[in-house]
Protein backbone atom coordinates (compact mmCIF):
# COMPACT_ATOMS: atom_id res chain seq x y z
CA UNK A 1 0.00 0.00 0.00
CA UNK A 2 1.62 3.32 -1.05
CA UNK A 3 2.11 6.20 1.32
CA UNK A 4 -0.45 9.00 1.49
CA UNK A 5 1.38 12.17 0.50
CA UNK A 6 2.06 14.76 3.17
CA UNK A 7 0.20 17.38 1.16
CA UNK A 8 -2.92 15.18 1.15
CA UNK A 9 -2.67 14.62 4.89
CA UNK A 10 -2.39 18.35 5.44
CA UNK A 11 -5.37 19.00 3.16
CA UNK A 12 -7.49 16.57 5.18
CA UNK A 13 -6.47 18.23 8.46
CA UNK A 14 -7.11 21.70 7.04
CA UNK A 15 -10.58 20.82 5.76
CA UNK A 16 -11.59 18.78 8.79
CA UNK A 17 -14.37 20.30 10.88
CA UNK A 18 -13.13 19.41 14.37
CA UNK A 19 -16.45 20.10 16.09
CA UNK A 20 -18.38 17.97 13.59
CA UNK A 21 -15.96 15.08 14.00
CA UNK A 22 -15.87 15.25 17.81
CA UNK A 23 -19.64 15.64 17.86
CA UNK A 24 -19.93 12.04 16.66
CA UNK A 25 -18.43 10.94 19.98
CA UNK A 26 -19.24 13.67 22.52
CA UNK A 27 -22.18 16.07 22.85
CA UNK A 28 -20.58 19.51 22.63
CA UNK A 29 -21.93 22.92 23.63
CA UNK A 30 -20.50 26.21 22.38
CA UNK A 31 -19.29 28.33 25.29
CA UNK A 32 -17.83 31.52 23.88
CA UNK A 33 -15.94 29.77 21.12
CA UNK A 34 -14.86 26.84 23.25
CA UNK A 35 -16.82 23.63 22.82
CA UNK A 36 -17.41 21.72 26.04
CA UNK A 37 -18.81 18.27 26.81
CA UNK A 38 -18.59 15.29 29.15
CA UNK A 39 -15.26 13.48 28.85
CA UNK A 40 -15.51 9.99 27.28
CA UNK A 41 -12.42 8.83 29.19
CA UNK A 42 -13.56 9.23 32.78
CA UNK A 43 -16.66 9.59 34.92
CA UNK A 44 -17.89 13.16 35.33
CA UNK A 45 -21.14 15.07 35.67
CA UNK A 46 -19.85 18.58 34.94
CA UNK A 47 -18.29 19.04 31.47
CA UNK A 48 -14.52 19.43 31.58
CA UNK A 49 -13.78 18.13 28.07
CA UNK A 50 -12.87 21.02 25.77
CA UNK A 51 -12.34 21.24 22.01
CA UNK A 52 -10.50 24.04 20.22
CA UNK A 53 -11.93 24.07 16.67
CA UNK A 54 -9.18 26.28 15.26
CA UNK A 55 -6.23 24.24 16.50
CA UNK A 56 -8.23 20.97 16.21
CA UNK A 57 -7.22 20.04 19.75
CA UNK A 58 -9.07 18.46 22.64
CA UNK A 59 -8.24 18.39 26.33
CA UNK A 60 -10.00 17.19 29.47
CA UNK A 61 -9.27 19.35 32.49
CA UNK A 62 -10.57 16.55 34.71
CA UNK A 63 -8.44 13.54 33.76
CA UNK A 64 -5.73 15.31 31.73
CA UNK A 65 -6.28 13.41 28.46
CA UNK A 66 -5.69 15.48 25.36
CA UNK A 67 -4.28 15.67 21.87
CA UNK A 68 -5.32 16.33 18.31
CA UNK A 69 -8.72 15.40 16.93
CA UNK A 70 -6.99 12.94 14.63
CA UNK A 71 -5.40 11.18 17.63
CA UNK A 72 -8.80 11.11 19.31
CA UNK A 73 -10.62 9.21 16.57
CA UNK A 74 -7.67 6.83 16.18
CA UNK A 75 -7.94 5.96 19.87
CA UNK A 76 -11.74 5.81 20.04
CA UNK A 77 -12.22 3.65 16.94
CA UNK A 78 -8.91 1.76 17.15
CA UNK A 79 -7.80 3.03 13.74
CA UNK A 80 -4.33 3.27 12.27
CA UNK A 81 -3.16 6.66 11.06
CA UNK A 82 -3.81 5.86 7.35
CA UNK A 83 -7.27 4.49 8.21
CA UNK A 84 -8.17 7.65 10.11
CA UNK A 85 -6.95 9.89 7.28
CA UNK A 86 -8.86 7.85 4.69
CA UNK A 87 -12.09 8.02 6.72
CA UNK A 88 -11.79 11.78 7.17
CA UNK A 89 -10.88 12.26 3.51
CA UNK A 90 -14.11 10.55 2.44
CA UNK A 91 -16.13 12.62 4.89
CA UNK A 92 -14.71 15.98 3.86
CA UNK A 93 -14.32 15.32 0.15
CA UNK A 94 -10.54 15.15 -0.15
CA UNK A 95 -9.09 13.09 -2.99
CA UNK A 96 -6.00 11.47 -1.47
CA UNK A 97 -2.76 11.38 -3.41
CA UNK A 98 -0.27 8.54 -2.84
CA UNK A 99 3.41 8.09 -3.40
CA UNK A 100 5.57 5.01 -3.84
CA UNK A 101 7.18 3.35 -0.87
CA UNK A 102 5.86 2.71 2.60
CA UNK A 103 6.25 0.68 5.75
CA UNK A 104 5.82 -2.93 4.70
CA UNK A 105 4.63 -4.15 8.09
CA UNK A 106 2.08 -1.35 8.46
CA UNK A 107 0.81 -1.88 4.93
CA UNK A 108 0.51 -5.62 5.56
CA UNK A 109 -1.52 -5.12 8.73
CA UNK A 110 -3.84 -2.59 7.09
CA UNK A 111 -4.40 -4.93 4.15
CA UNK A 112 -5.17 -7.78 6.56
CA UNK A 113 -7.80 -5.70 8.37
CA UNK A 114 -9.47 -4.74 5.11
CA UNK A 115 -9.44 -8.37 3.99
CA UNK A 116 -11.06 -9.46 7.24
CA UNK A 117 -13.82 -6.88 6.85
CA UNK A 118 -14.42 -8.14 3.32
CA UNK A 119 -14.45 -11.77 4.48
CA UNK A 120 -16.90 -11.14 7.33
CA UNK A 121 -19.20 -9.18 5.04
CA UNK A 122 -19.19 -12.03 2.51
CA UNK A 123 -19.82 -14.67 5.21
CA UNK A 124 -22.66 -12.62 6.75
CA UNK A 125 -24.27 -12.27 3.34
CA UNK A 126 -23.90 -15.97 2.58
CA UNK A 127 -25.37 -17.08 5.92
CA UNK A 128 -28.27 -14.66 5.43
CA UNK A 129 -28.97 -15.99 1.95
CA UNK A 130 -29.04 -19.57 3.29
CA UNK A 131 -31.56 -18.58 5.97
CA UNK A 132 -33.82 -16.43 3.82
CA UNK A 133 -33.72 -18.17 0.44
CA UNK A 134 -32.40 -21.73 0.65
CA UNK A 135 -34.12 -24.96 1.77
CA UNK A 136 -31.38 -25.83 4.31
CA UNK A 137 -32.18 -22.67 6.23
CA UNK A 138 -35.93 -23.28 6.37
CA UNK A 139 -35.97 -24.84 9.86
CA UNK A 140 -33.91 -21.94 11.29
CA UNK A 141 -36.20 -19.37 9.65
CA UNK A 142 -39.26 -21.21 10.94
CA UNK A 143 -37.79 -21.07 14.47
CA UNK A 144 -37.21 -17.31 14.23
CA UNK A 145 -40.71 -16.60 12.94
CA UNK A 146 -42.21 -18.90 15.60
CA UNK A 147 -40.66 -16.66 18.25
CA UNK A 148 -42.77 -13.77 16.98
CA UNK A 149 -39.86 -12.14 15.13
CA UNK A 150 -40.99 -10.64 11.84
CA UNK A 151 -39.34 -11.17 8.48
CA UNK A 152 -38.61 -7.44 8.47
CA UNK A 153 -36.36 -7.94 11.51
CA UNK A 154 -34.69 -10.92 9.82
CA UNK A 155 -33.73 -8.55 7.02
CA UNK A 156 -32.84 -5.62 9.29
CA UNK A 157 -30.40 -7.66 11.39
CA UNK A 158 -29.28 -9.88 8.47
CA UNK A 159 -29.90 -13.03 10.49
CA UNK A 160 -28.35 -16.12 8.94
CA UNK A 161 -27.94 -19.86 9.09
CA UNK A 162 -24.73 -21.90 9.36
CA UNK A 163 -25.23 -25.33 7.73
CA UNK A 164 -24.91 -28.56 9.70
CA UNK A 165 -22.08 -29.59 7.36
CA UNK A 166 -19.09 -28.15 9.20
CA UNK A 167 -16.94 -28.20 6.06
CA UNK A 168 -19.39 -26.21 3.95
CA UNK A 169 -18.00 -22.77 4.81
CA UNK A 170 -14.38 -23.74 4.18
CA UNK A 171 -15.23 -25.22 0.78
CA UNK A 172 -17.34 -22.19 -0.12
CA UNK A 173 -14.64 -19.66 0.79
CA UNK A 174 -11.87 -21.68 -0.83
CA UNK A 175 -13.77 -21.56 -4.11
CA UNK A 176 -13.95 -17.78 -3.71
CA UNK A 177 -10.16 -17.61 -3.66
CA UNK A 178 -9.39 -17.37 0.05
CA UNK A 179 -6.17 -19.10 1.10
CA UNK A 180 -5.88 -21.64 3.92
CA UNK A 181 -3.40 -19.35 5.68
CA UNK A 182 -5.85 -16.46 5.70
CA UNK A 183 -8.83 -18.57 6.76
CA UNK A 184 -6.73 -19.98 9.60
CA UNK A 185 -6.46 -16.52 11.20
CA UNK A 186 -10.09 -15.55 10.55
CA UNK A 187 -11.29 -17.22 13.83
CA UNK A 188 -14.19 -18.70 11.85
CA UNK A 189 -12.76 -22.22 11.98
CA UNK A 190 -11.50 -24.75 14.50
CA UNK A 191 -7.91 -24.20 15.57
CA UNK A 192 -7.19 -27.90 15.44
CA UNK A 193 -9.19 -28.76 12.32
CA UNK A 194 -9.05 -25.90 9.84
CA UNK A 195 -11.76 -27.22 7.55
CA UNK A 196 -14.27 -27.38 10.42
CA UNK A 197 -16.43 -24.27 10.81
CA UNK A 198 -16.82 -22.79 14.28
CA UNK A 199 -20.59 -22.69 13.69
CA UNK A 200 -22.68 -25.66 12.57
CA UNK A 201 -26.49 -25.89 12.40
CA UNK A 202 -26.88 -22.59 14.21
CA UNK A 203 -28.96 -19.47 13.79
CA UNK A 204 -26.42 -16.72 13.08
CA UNK A 205 -26.49 -13.17 14.46
CA UNK A 206 -23.97 -10.84 12.73
CA UNK A 207 -22.26 -8.51 15.22
CA UNK A 208 -21.50 -5.10 13.77
CA UNK A 209 -19.36 -2.16 14.83
CA UNK A 210 -20.68 1.40 15.07
CA UNK A 211 -20.18 1.90 11.32
CA UNK A 212 -22.31 -1.16 10.54
CA UNK A 213 -19.38 -3.36 9.48
CA UNK A 214 -19.62 -7.02 10.50
CA UNK A 215 -16.81 -7.86 12.92
CA UNK A 216 -18.00 -11.09 14.57
CA UNK A 217 -20.86 -13.59 14.77
CA UNK A 218 -23.05 -15.10 17.44
CA UNK A 219 -24.70 -18.45 16.90
CA UNK A 220 -27.70 -20.10 18.60
CA UNK A 221 -27.80 -23.90 18.66
CA UNK A 222 -30.84 -25.29 16.86
CA UNK A 223 -30.39 -29.00 17.53
CA UNK A 224 -28.01 -31.48 19.12
CA UNK A 225 -25.67 -31.00 22.06
CA UNK A 226 -23.45 -28.05 22.87
CA UNK A 227 -23.58 -24.54 24.30
CA UNK A 228 -26.85 -22.76 23.54
CA UNK A 229 -24.97 -19.66 22.29
CA UNK A 230 -21.47 -19.23 20.87
CA UNK A 231 -19.57 -16.10 19.81
CA UNK A 232 -16.55 -15.98 17.55
CA UNK A 233 -13.29 -15.47 19.39
CA UNK A 234 -11.73 -12.04 19.72
CA UNK A 235 -9.77 -10.88 16.71
CA UNK A 236 -8.11 -7.85 15.18
CA UNK A 237 -11.64 -6.56 14.47
CA UNK A 238 -13.52 -7.69 17.55
CA UNK A 239 -13.09 -7.13 21.31
CA UNK A 240 -16.24 -8.39 22.98
CA UNK A 241 -15.87 -6.20 26.07
CA UNK A 242 -15.77 -3.09 23.85
CA UNK A 243 -18.67 -3.95 21.54
CA UNK A 244 -22.45 -4.05 21.94
CA UNK A 245 -24.86 -6.07 19.85
CA UNK A 246 -27.02 -3.84 17.60
CA UNK A 247 -25.06 -0.70 18.48
CA UNK A 248 -25.15 0.44 14.84
CA UNK A 249 -28.94 0.06 14.67
CA UNK A 250 -29.52 1.63 18.09
CA UNK A 251 -27.27 4.69 17.93
CA UNK A 252 -29.61 7.02 15.99
CA UNK A 253 -32.35 6.66 18.61
CA UNK A 254 -29.87 6.73 21.50
CA UNK A 255 -28.50 10.04 20.23
CA UNK A 256 -32.00 11.40 19.82
CA UNK A 257 -33.37 10.35 23.24
CA UNK A 258 -30.09 10.30 25.22
CA UNK A 259 -31.36 7.01 26.60
CA UNK A 260 -30.49 3.34 25.99
CA UNK A 261 -31.99 0.00 26.90
CA UNK A 262 -29.70 -2.91 27.75
CA UNK A 263 -31.11 -6.41 27.33
CA UNK A 264 -29.42 -9.75 27.94
CA UNK A 265 -29.57 -11.49 24.57
CA UNK A 266 -29.82 -11.22 20.81
CA UNK A 267 -33.47 -12.27 20.57
CA UNK A 268 -34.49 -9.81 23.30
CA UNK A 269 -32.81 -6.95 21.43
CA UNK A 270 -34.47 -7.86 18.14
CA UNK A 271 -37.86 -8.23 19.85
CA UNK A 272 -37.55 -4.79 21.39
CA UNK A 273 -36.52 -3.22 18.09
CA UNK A 274 -39.59 -4.83 16.52
CA UNK A 275 -41.69 -3.28 19.31
CA UNK A 276 -40.30 0.15 18.45
CA UNK A 277 -37.73 0.34 21.27
CA UNK A 278 -34.93 0.85 18.77
CA UNK A 279 -32.42 2.20 21.27
CA UNK A 280 -31.77 -1.31 22.67
CA UNK A 281 -28.39 -3.06 22.74
CA UNK A 282 -26.90 -6.07 24.55
CA UNK A 283 -23.49 -7.15 25.88
CA UNK A 284 -21.89 -10.07 24.09
CA UNK A 285 -21.73 -13.08 26.33
CA UNK A 286 -20.10 -11.20 29.20
CA UNK A 287 -21.13 -8.87 31.98
CA UNK A 288 -21.74 -5.26 31.02
CA UNK A 289 -18.25 -3.71 30.96
CA UNK A 290 -16.75 -0.30 31.70
CA UNK A 291 -15.75 0.01 28.04
CA UNK A 292 -19.31 -0.65 26.91
CA UNK A 293 -20.64 1.87 29.45
CA UNK A 294 -18.21 4.52 28.22
CA UNK A 295 -19.29 3.83 24.65
CA UNK A 296 -22.93 4.50 25.57
CA UNK A 297 -22.05 7.47 27.76
CA UNK A 298 -20.81 9.37 24.72
CA UNK A 299 -24.41 9.58 23.53
CA UNK A 300 -26.70 8.69 26.45
CA UNK A 301 -27.38 10.04 29.92
CA UNK A 302 -29.34 7.07 31.28
CA UNK A 303 -29.80 3.37 30.64
CA UNK A 304 -32.68 1.03 31.40
CA UNK A 305 -31.60 -2.47 32.36
CA UNK A 306 -33.72 -5.44 31.27
CA UNK A 307 -32.48 -8.56 33.05
CA UNK A 308 -34.03 -11.86 34.02
CA UNK A 309 -35.77 -12.01 37.38
CA UNK A 310 -33.85 -15.12 38.49
CA UNK A 311 -30.81 -14.90 40.78
CA UNK A 312 -28.31 -14.87 37.91
CA UNK A 313 -30.20 -12.07 36.18
CA UNK A 314 -30.49 -9.99 39.32
CA UNK A 315 -26.80 -10.44 40.12
CA UNK A 316 -25.99 -9.27 36.59
CA UNK A 317 -28.32 -6.29 37.07
CA UNK A 318 -26.52 -5.22 40.25
CA UNK A 319 -23.13 -5.41 38.54
CA UNK A 320 -24.50 -3.44 35.59
CA UNK A 321 -25.84 -0.74 37.93
CA UNK A 322 -22.40 -0.26 39.48
CA UNK A 323 -20.79 -0.20 36.03
CA UNK A 324 -23.25 2.43 34.82
CA UNK A 325 -22.84 4.70 37.83
CA UNK A 326 -19.07 4.28 37.83
CA UNK A 327 -19.04 5.61 34.28
CA UNK A 328 -21.47 8.49 34.68
CA UNK A 329 -24.70 6.84 33.53
CA UNK A 330 -27.93 6.97 35.53
CA UNK A 331 -29.42 3.47 35.69
CA UNK A 332 -33.03 2.33 35.87
CA UNK A 333 -34.32 -1.22 36.21
CA UNK A 334 -37.25 -2.48 34.18
CA UNK A 335 -39.40 -4.25 36.79
CA UNK A 336 -41.58 -7.23 35.77
CA UNK A 337 -44.12 -6.67 38.54
CA UNK A 338 -44.78 -3.16 37.24
CA UNK A 339 -44.73 -3.88 33.53
CA UNK A 340 -48.06 -5.66 33.41
CA UNK A 341 -49.80 -2.74 35.10
CA UNK A 342 -48.09 -0.34 32.72
CA UNK A 343 -49.21 -2.39 29.74
CA UNK A 344 -52.79 -2.46 30.94
CA UNK A 345 -52.86 1.24 31.78
CA UNK A 346 -51.38 2.15 28.40
CA UNK A 347 -54.37 0.97 26.40
CA UNK A 348 -54.74 -2.74 27.02
CA UNK A 349 -58.16 -3.19 28.68
CA UNK A 350 -58.89 -6.09 30.98
CA UNK A 351 -61.01 -7.48 28.17
CA UNK A 352 -57.89 -7.60 26.02
CA UNK A 353 -55.48 -8.70 28.76
CA UNK A 354 -57.07 -10.74 31.52
CA UNK A 355 -55.77 -10.91 35.10
CA UNK A 356 -54.38 -14.34 34.34
CA UNK A 357 -52.61 -12.98 31.28
CA UNK A 358 -51.19 -10.13 33.32
CA UNK A 359 -49.73 -12.59 35.79
CA UNK A 360 -48.27 -14.48 32.87
CA UNK A 361 -46.57 -11.31 31.66
CA UNK A 362 -45.20 -10.78 35.16
CA UNK A 363 -43.69 -14.26 35.29
CA UNK A 364 -42.14 -14.12 31.84
CA UNK A 365 -38.41 -13.55 31.75
CA UNK A 366 -37.72 -12.56 28.15
CA UNK A 367 -38.95 -9.63 26.04
CA UNK A 368 -39.03 -12.10 23.14
CA UNK A 369 -41.58 -14.22 25.03
CA UNK A 370 -43.78 -11.19 25.74
CA UNK A 371 -43.60 -10.20 22.07
CA UNK A 372 -44.67 -13.67 20.99
CA UNK A 373 -47.50 -13.96 23.52
CA UNK A 374 -48.94 -10.44 23.57
CA UNK A 375 -47.47 -8.50 20.66
CA UNK A 376 -45.28 -5.47 20.26
CA UNK A 377 -47.55 -2.85 21.87
CA UNK A 378 -47.67 -4.72 25.19
CA UNK A 379 -43.89 -5.26 25.08
CA UNK A 380 -43.25 -1.61 24.32
CA UNK A 381 -45.37 -0.52 27.28
CA UNK A 382 -43.88 -3.16 29.56
CA UNK A 383 -40.36 -1.79 29.32
CA UNK A 384 -41.52 1.73 30.11
CA UNK A 385 -42.13 0.73 33.73
CA UNK A 386 -38.85 1.32 35.54
CA UNK A 387 -37.49 2.17 38.98
CA UNK A 388 -34.33 4.07 39.86
CA UNK A 389 -31.30 1.94 40.63
CA UNK A 390 -31.09 3.04 44.27
CA UNK A 391 -34.73 2.15 44.89
CA UNK A 392 -34.11 -1.24 43.34
CA UNK A 393 -30.99 -1.92 45.43
CA UNK A 394 -32.70 -0.94 48.67
CA UNK A 395 -35.67 -3.18 47.85
CA UNK A 396 -33.27 -5.99 46.96
CA UNK A 397 -31.33 -5.59 50.22
CA UNK A 398 -34.54 -5.70 52.26
CA UNK A 399 -35.50 -8.90 50.50
CA UNK A 400 -32.15 -10.55 51.12
CA UNK A 401 -31.75 -9.74 54.81
CA UNK A 402 -33.98 -9.71 57.88
CA UNK A 403 -34.14 -6.00 58.60
CA UNK A 404 -36.07 -6.59 61.80
CA UNK A 405 -32.78 -7.70 63.36
CA UNK A 406 -29.83 -5.37 63.95
CA UNK A 407 -27.41 -7.68 62.12
CA UNK A 408 -29.80 -7.77 59.16
CA UNK A 409 -29.97 -3.98 59.07
CA UNK A 410 -26.19 -3.81 59.05
CA UNK A 411 -25.90 -6.33 56.19
CA UNK A 412 -28.66 -4.65 54.20
CA UNK A 413 -26.90 -1.29 54.50
CA UNK A 414 -23.53 -2.81 53.57
CA UNK A 415 -25.18 -4.34 50.47
CA UNK A 416 -25.83 -0.81 49.13
CA UNK A 417 -22.47 0.72 50.13
CA UNK A 418 -20.63 -0.30 46.89
CA UNK A 419 -23.26 1.65 44.95
CA UNK A 420 -22.65 4.74 47.09
CA UNK A 421 -18.94 4.57 46.27
CA UNK A 422 -19.67 4.95 42.56
CA UNK A 423 -21.39 8.32 43.06
CA UNK A 424 -19.14 11.28 42.29
CA UNK A 425 -21.29 13.90 44.01
CA UNK A 426 -21.15 14.28 47.78
CA UNK A 427 -24.62 15.84 47.70
CA UNK A 428 -26.12 12.89 45.81
CA UNK A 429 -24.27 10.44 48.05
CA UNK A 430 -25.50 12.15 51.21
CA UNK A 431 -29.10 12.06 49.94
CA UNK A 432 -28.74 8.36 49.08
CA UNK A 433 -27.36 7.62 52.55
CA UNK A 434 -30.38 9.34 54.07
CA UNK A 435 -32.78 7.38 51.87
CA UNK A 436 -31.07 4.10 52.79
CA UNK A 437 -31.19 4.88 56.52
CA UNK A 438 -34.87 5.81 56.37
CA UNK A 439 -35.74 2.65 54.45
CA UNK A 440 -34.00 0.49 57.07
CA UNK A 441 -35.39 2.62 59.93
CA UNK A 442 -32.01 3.34 61.46
CA UNK A 443 -30.26 6.55 62.46
CA UNK A 444 -28.79 8.40 59.47
CA UNK A 445 -25.59 9.25 61.30
CA UNK A 446 -25.05 5.60 62.18
CA UNK A 447 -25.30 4.57 58.52
CA UNK A 448 -23.00 7.42 57.53
CA UNK A 449 -20.41 6.34 60.12
CA UNK A 450 -20.50 2.72 58.95
CA UNK A 451 -20.07 3.84 55.35
CA UNK A 452 -17.15 6.16 56.17
CA UNK A 453 -15.46 3.41 58.18
CA UNK A 454 -15.77 1.10 55.20
CA UNK A 455 -14.17 3.66 52.90
CA UNK A 456 -11.36 4.28 55.36
CA UNK A 457 -10.63 0.56 55.64
CA UNK A 458 -10.60 0.08 51.85
CA UNK A 459 -8.22 2.99 51.27
CA UNK A 460 -5.89 1.89 54.08
CA UNK A 461 -5.70 -1.65 52.67
CA UNK A 462 -5.41 -0.51 49.05
CA UNK A 463 -3.87 2.96 48.79
CA UNK A 464 -5.02 4.86 45.71
CA UNK A 465 -8.41 3.14 45.52
CA UNK A 466 -10.38 5.91 47.15
CA UNK A 467 -12.71 8.37 45.51
CA UNK A 468 -12.22 9.77 42.05
CA UNK A 469 -10.46 12.81 43.48
CA UNK A 470 -7.60 10.52 44.52
CA UNK A 471 -7.12 9.16 41.05
CA UNK A 472 -4.91 11.71 39.35
CA UNK A 473 -2.72 11.27 36.28
CA UNK A 474 0.52 9.47 37.06
CA UNK A 475 2.74 12.24 35.65
CA UNK A 476 2.60 15.55 37.46
CA UNK A 477 1.95 18.50 35.14
CA UNK A 478 4.77 20.85 34.19
CA UNK A 479 5.12 24.10 36.06
CA UNK A 480 4.68 27.21 33.98
CA UNK A 481 7.81 29.27 33.32
CA UNK A 482 8.85 31.88 30.79
CA UNK A 483 10.50 29.41 28.44
CA UNK A 484 7.65 26.89 28.42
CA UNK A 485 5.11 29.65 27.89
CA UNK A 486 7.05 31.04 24.93
CA UNK A 487 7.58 27.67 23.23
CA UNK A 488 3.91 26.78 23.71
CA UNK A 489 2.89 30.04 22.00
CA UNK A 490 5.16 29.20 19.07
CA UNK A 491 3.90 25.61 18.95
CA UNK A 492 0.28 26.62 18.47
CA UNK A 493 1.27 29.41 16.07
CA UNK A 494 3.92 27.54 14.10
CA UNK A 495 3.62 29.89 11.12
CA UNK A 496 5.67 32.30 13.28
CA UNK A 497 8.45 29.80 13.95
CA UNK A 498 10.80 31.05 11.23
CA UNK A 499 10.75 34.55 12.77
CA UNK A 500 11.18 33.09 16.25
CA UNK A 501 14.22 30.93 15.41
CA UNK A 502 15.95 33.94 13.83
CA UNK A 503 15.82 35.81 17.15
CA UNK A 504 16.43 33.06 19.72
CA UNK A 505 18.73 30.04 19.63
CA UNK A 506 18.20 26.75 21.45
CA UNK A 507 21.34 27.45 23.49
CA UNK A 508 19.47 30.27 25.18
CA UNK A 509 16.80 27.84 26.46
CA UNK A 510 17.48 26.03 29.74
CA UNK A 511 14.21 24.25 30.59
CA UNK A 512 14.41 20.61 29.32
CA UNK A 513 10.77 20.44 28.27
CA UNK A 514 11.02 23.75 26.42
CA UNK A 515 14.14 22.49 24.64
CA UNK A 516 12.24 19.35 23.65
CA UNK A 517 9.52 21.48 22.05
CA UNK A 518 12.12 23.66 20.33
CA UNK A 519 13.82 20.61 18.77
CA UNK A 520 10.48 19.24 17.55
CA UNK A 521 9.61 22.60 15.98
CA UNK A 522 12.95 22.68 14.19
CA UNK A 523 12.41 19.15 12.83
CA UNK A 524 9.01 20.14 11.46
CA UNK A 525 10.49 23.34 9.99
CA UNK A 526 13.28 21.45 8.21
CA UNK A 527 10.78 18.92 6.81
CA UNK A 528 8.30 21.66 5.85
CA UNK A 529 5.58 20.10 8.03
CA UNK A 530 3.00 22.22 9.83
CA UNK A 531 0.30 21.73 12.41
CA UNK A 532 0.09 20.01 15.75
CA UNK A 533 -0.54 16.61 14.16
CA UNK A 534 3.00 16.81 12.81
CA UNK A 535 4.54 18.50 15.87
CA UNK A 536 3.17 16.58 18.86
CA UNK A 537 4.49 13.12 17.88
CA UNK A 538 7.99 14.63 17.61
CA UNK A 539 7.96 15.88 21.20
CA UNK A 540 9.51 13.14 23.32
CA UNK A 541 8.23 14.42 26.68
CA UNK A 542 4.65 13.31 27.40
CA UNK A 543 4.28 16.14 29.90
CA UNK A 544 5.39 18.68 27.30
CA UNK A 545 2.81 17.36 24.85
CA UNK A 546 0.09 17.58 27.49
CA UNK A 547 1.19 21.11 28.37
CA UNK A 548 0.82 22.33 24.78
CA UNK A 549 -2.56 20.64 24.32
CA UNK A 550 -3.95 22.00 27.58
CA UNK A 551 -2.77 25.55 26.88
CA UNK A 552 -3.85 25.36 23.26
CA UNK A 553 -7.40 24.37 24.17
CA UNK A 554 -7.74 27.37 26.51
CA UNK A 555 -7.13 29.67 23.51
CA UNK A 556 -4.89 31.89 25.64
CA UNK A 557 -2.27 31.98 22.84
CA UNK A 558 -4.64 32.94 20.05
CA UNK A 559 -4.76 36.66 20.83
CA UNK A 560 -1.86 38.69 19.38
CA UNK A 561 0.67 35.82 19.30
CA UNK A 562 3.34 37.99 17.60
CA UNK A 563 3.45 40.26 20.64
CA UNK A 564 3.45 37.30 23.03
CA UNK A 565 6.45 35.83 21.23
CA UNK A 566 8.31 39.15 21.06
CA UNK A 567 7.74 39.84 24.74
CA UNK A 568 8.70 36.27 25.65
CA UNK A 569 11.98 36.41 23.76
CA UNK A 570 12.81 39.73 25.40
CA UNK A 571 12.11 38.40 28.89
CA UNK A 572 14.19 35.25 28.35
CA UNK A 573 17.15 37.20 27.00
CA UNK A 574 16.86 39.72 29.82
CA UNK A 575 16.75 37.08 32.53
CA UNK A 576 19.66 35.23 30.97
CA UNK A 577 21.76 38.41 30.97
CA UNK A 578 20.68 39.23 34.54
CA UNK A 579 21.73 35.76 35.72
CA UNK A 580 25.12 36.16 34.05
CA UNK A 581 25.53 39.61 35.60
CA UNK A 582 24.70 38.28 39.08
CA UNK A 583 27.18 35.45 38.61
CA UNK A 584 29.94 37.92 37.66
CA UNK A 585 29.21 40.07 40.71
CA UNK A 586 29.49 37.02 42.95
CA UNK A 587 32.79 36.00 41.36
CA UNK A 588 34.21 39.53 41.71
CA UNK A 589 33.33 39.59 45.42
CA UNK A 590 35.01 36.26 45.98
CA UNK A 591 38.18 37.47 44.25
CA UNK A 592 38.30 40.67 46.25
CA UNK A 593 37.72 38.91 49.56
CA UNK A 594 40.50 36.41 48.85
CA UNK A 595 43.08 38.73 47.31
CA UNK A 596 45.06 39.16 50.54
CA UNK A 597 45.24 35.40 50.98
CA UNK A 598 46.12 34.72 47.39
CA UNK A 599 49.82 34.21 46.74
CA UNK A 600 49.38 35.41 43.16
CA UNK A 601 47.64 38.71 43.79
CA UNK A 602 48.60 39.98 40.32
CA UNK A 603 46.75 37.12 38.58
CA UNK A 604 43.67 37.70 40.76
CA UNK A 605 43.68 41.40 39.90
CA UNK A 606 43.87 40.59 36.18
CA UNK A 607 40.87 38.27 36.49
CA UNK A 608 39.03 40.94 38.43
CA UNK A 609 39.60 43.46 35.64
CA UNK A 610 38.34 41.00 33.02
CA UNK A 611 35.17 40.40 34.97
CA UNK A 612 34.56 44.11 35.49
CA UNK A 613 34.95 44.70 31.77
CA UNK A 614 32.52 41.88 30.97
CA UNK A 615 30.11 43.31 33.55
CA UNK A 616 30.21 46.67 31.74
CA UNK A 617 29.40 45.04 28.39
CA UNK A 618 26.56 43.01 29.94
CA UNK A 619 25.06 46.06 31.62
CA UNK A 620 25.14 47.93 28.31
CA UNK A 621 23.48 45.00 26.54
CA UNK A 622 20.84 44.83 29.26
CA UNK A 623 20.09 48.58 28.99
CA UNK A 624 19.79 48.27 25.23
CA UNK A 625 17.43 45.33 25.57
CA UNK A 626 15.20 47.10 28.09
CA UNK A 627 15.03 50.19 25.89
CA UNK A 628 14.21 48.26 22.74
CA UNK A 629 10.57 48.22 21.58
CA UNK A 630 10.73 44.84 19.85
Essential attributes:
DNA Primase, Chain A, DNA primase DNAg catalytic core, N-terminal domain, 10% strand, 5 domains, alpha+beta, 630 residues, 16 strands, globular, five-stranded mixed β-sheet
Architecture overview:
By secondary structure, the protein is an alpha+beta fold. The protein has 5 domains: 3-99, DNA Primase, Chain A (Alpha-Beta Complex); 103-238, DNA primase, catalytic core, N-terminal domain (DNA primase DNAg catalytic core, N-terminal domain, Alpha-Beta Complex), CATH 3.90.980; 401-470; 482-559, no CATH class; 567-627. Helices cover 54% and strands 10% of the residues. The chain has a 5-stranded antiparallel sheet with strand order 2-3-4-5-6. Strand 5 (57-60) and strand 6 form a beta hairpin. Helix 14 (336-345) runs antiparallel to helix 15, helix 14 (336-345) packs across helix 17 (376-382) and helix 22 (482-492) runs parallel beside helix 24. It is globular, with a radius of gyration of 33 Å. 36% of the residues are buried. The model is unreliable at 338-364 and 459-476 (pLDDT under 50).
Amino acid sequence: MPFITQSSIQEVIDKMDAVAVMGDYVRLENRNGRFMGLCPFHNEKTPSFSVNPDLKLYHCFGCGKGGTVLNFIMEMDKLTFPEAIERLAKRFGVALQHEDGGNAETDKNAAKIEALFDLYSRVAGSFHYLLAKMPQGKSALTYVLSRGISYEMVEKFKLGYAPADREWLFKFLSKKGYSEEFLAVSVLFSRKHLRMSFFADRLIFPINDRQGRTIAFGGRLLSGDGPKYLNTSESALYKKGQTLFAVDAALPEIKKTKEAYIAEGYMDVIALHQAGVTNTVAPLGTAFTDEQARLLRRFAERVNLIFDSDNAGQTAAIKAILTCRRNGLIAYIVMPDETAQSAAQAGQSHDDVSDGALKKVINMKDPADILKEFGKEVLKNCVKSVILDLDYLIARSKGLYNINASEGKFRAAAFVFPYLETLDSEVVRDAALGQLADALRVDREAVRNDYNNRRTNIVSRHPGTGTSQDQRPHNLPLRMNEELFLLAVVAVNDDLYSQFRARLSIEEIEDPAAKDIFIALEECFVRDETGLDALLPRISSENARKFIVERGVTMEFSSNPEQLISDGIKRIKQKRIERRSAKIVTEIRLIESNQNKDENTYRSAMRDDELLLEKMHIDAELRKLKESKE
